[in-house]
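Good morning,

Both structures are done.
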Amino acid sequence: MTERLSPINNSVTDRSQFCVRLPPYINSGEIRVNQEKVDGLCKFAGISSLQVFSVDNGETSRTSPVVIGVDKNGAGLAGKDVARTNVPTYEVKGKNHKSPPFPWPNFEKDPTTFLVDVIQSVMDYRPASMQQIVLKINLNTQEISQRIATDSRWKNGTRSLEAWAHYLNTSVRSGIRDAGIRHLMFDTDWQNSAKAIASNTGAVMSLIQAVEKGIDPIVSVITFFLAGSIIGLAESGYAKLLNGENRFSPFVGPQIDRALVLALATKTATLIKAT
């Protein structure tokens, strides 16, 4: 099957956008993005929109001597050791589409509206598996260039297309991984937190009771996942009614299964390559 690749300096789909400017001695048109793979990972992780840009005036990693004392004139004395400040090649900025916060009553105004606010908040409920994030990844081309220059694997140094593709690919997939796992595991609101606490507490108590009664714990675990799957299927149907996207998971609350798969998928995925 032929891959559909787009230039990294101008590549747009309904879900993702790449506008990465590289140094003038690099032909950006020869470094291309597999946006089908990128969009697939984003959809799996609950990322509704991804924007990838370059920053050409970012900081770079550096080393500095460790001062171990001062001389008689007050000047610093440098030791043999050096301190290294590492700067990442990418920065992620994500915005989560959450439901409104819990409507705590405001007794200074009109506390009678509290019940109305609670009812409205329940009506606005969206399962965690439907919630999406908007993600922006900024690529630090200065730091990438410095890393290529000090990496002996690339014979052509900073003029190597393969080197740039390697570091850009690693940075983008790491950004999707970091933001995606954080979203799948930790982004939530009060409705979904309450649902997860109630469901998982009930599951743990049921497992304890099963052990006390001599029931095989494996049966209880299987029952737990079946119940979670039923809830997931119900939310899938609800999502279709709302014309929204849903990420099925047998876990109620943090989507551990999806986070693990995303971590593995982004470890070796080739999203960007030199052509």
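Second structure follows.
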Amino acid sequence: MVLIESNAQRRKELATALRSTGTMVVAASRMAEVERWPIGDIVVVESSFFTPLWNEVGATHVVVLADSPALGRHAVASGASAWVPRHCEPGDLLALIQTLPDVGVASAAAFPRGRSAQPTHLSVEPSPLQQAPALAAGQAR
């Protein structure tokens, strides 16, 4: 599992909780510190470091630590598997990870690469670009 959290204390707290389940965790404060592609791994990332490219480089799931519900919903609409409030209890993050399809917390790296279906229990709102396709194409209304 890859964990990217810029706050050192929070990163340590989350990494400790994840490791307590037997999960191997690469914890980093920013994307540049991650030395390998997350092929077959779950990526847990704060919203400022979320990109849909995590899925394209092999992450099985991407869970966003969102600073606000709007950022969480936007991340899911952009390809994240799920989101939790950035300052949630570590147990809440663990519980969410365990609900991800085809993924067990202790063996996330054992699953085949590629993106699984998004959980159906999450509410997803379209991003502004999805609401107005003309804007995405650079066209004025």
